[in-house]
Design brief:
The complex is a heterodimer. Chain A is mostly beta strands. Helices cover 12% and strands 52% of the residues of chain A. The two termini of chain A are 41 Å apart. Chain B is α+β, with helices and mostly antiparallel strands. Classes of the chains: A mainly beta, B alpha+beta.
Amino acid sequence: MKEKAIILILLFLAVCIAASRARAAPVDYAVGIYGGFTPSFGGDLHSYNQEKYFHSNSGIDGMNRARDGMSTSVIERLIGATAGIELKGIFLDYYFVRFAFNYTRSIYGGSGKTVFTPDGTNYYRLSCTYSLSMYDVPFTVGLSIPFWKDMKVSLSGGVAYAYVMYENQFKSSETTPPFERKGVFKGWGLPLVIIAEGEYFISPKLSLNAALSYYNGTTEVIKDDKDTDISGPDLNNDGSTPDAAVDFSRIDLTGYRFTLGISIYIESI
Amino acid sequence: MKLWRHTLFIVSLATALLIPALCFAIGEFSVGLNIGITSDPNNLDSEINRYNTVMEVYKEETSGAKISTLTVPYSPAYGFSFRYQFNFFLIRMGCHFTRPIGTNKGSVTPPGGEKNTIRITTYQNSFPATIGLLLPLKDRTYFYIGVGPTYHQTYVKITQSKPEQTSTLFSNAGLSTNRRDRYAVDFIGYHLMLGAEVPLWGKFTLSTEWIHQEGRSYPLQNGGVDQTGNDVYTPRKIINVKGDFILFGINYYIGI
């Protein structure tokens, strides 16, 4: 965490220097809203119990299995919908600072049926459900270039504070007795953020924008805080019947976001 | 295979340098110093996560066990670049080096046992050669996009101070129980680049560049030692350099 603190301080100093140089210079601000989507939200959503009980060491990817005579369905990685508000500042024509607040949640994928075997002989169907939601506050600095009379392109990088909540559920009514495993993981991370954005001004102060954002980071390993698991059979075939299973997972914040939005500037382009 | 890769790299560089000459173009040269940041160089995230999960589960299930987890590091990047640009074309040769700040370490102490400290050391040195298109907006104000090969030098070392304390724990989870695992290799990948550049003063400009790189080594032989100090050659490891850099640079234009 020490190096993350150093990086945040350096970024803060960079902004202060830019702001001090810009004190007597033209400054323009904009506020905007936007929405978009993020494919493969949360990555493979691996957790310890998926490996211990269901033999998947790659989360969703490894949970997808099929067996002749058993009806299953594909469990797809999550696609998230994202929405946010942003505040942008442009100093000395080119120097760009952006601060935003985003909410992202899974809207597609993450549910289906697979098969598993606790003992290598008997196979059972397993219903799987995954969901993920995230709040994040990215802060980036970079360059914004106006060109022609009605466009701007900006490129910026920085860090975000991200708070995430990941839930999974695995249940089967075919085992004796039936069981249900739930996991809820809440935690935070400081992912690296890089944003490329293009804007087209439909009026002197109003722009439409499209952006590609890249996040890279993870949370630390988080302990499942859900204790409502329903015990079932000896799932990992170790001779003991598990009680409520404690699970662990780190949440992967790495991925891309594609957004479209609208911004209102104080000054005309 | 290595010879083929080196040949490809040299041919790419030669092509990049020859294109302007073939075009009889007169453009501008610039040199730049860059500083930036990346996250998780050499993609050790999954391995770190595995160590951390195993240690967390061990602590949960073993009364009296103590642990300290590893972190996925941020890593500053430093580098330089040489650029040649004419009309709408850009040729860029660069180098950026990244190594996480400080020591990335974690530990696990069995009840009544000795602490086993795990340390991860890694660095990556990349030489991207880029051919791109440039949008000249006004005097030394550009937006550019490019692609090209990257020559990577990579290094990963994982050490354990008392691996015998956690042999069963780590081997059951498929993790190494060696005192030291070390991998080093150079190979060629590729990259995509987006950049923006604005005038600063005189012949100096300020640039921001986003470099996305891809590349994987072949499975590498371990150059480590086991718990008794003997050389070991396993487990093998693939180094993956897939990742993104944001670089901020100051450039100086050289008149020709």
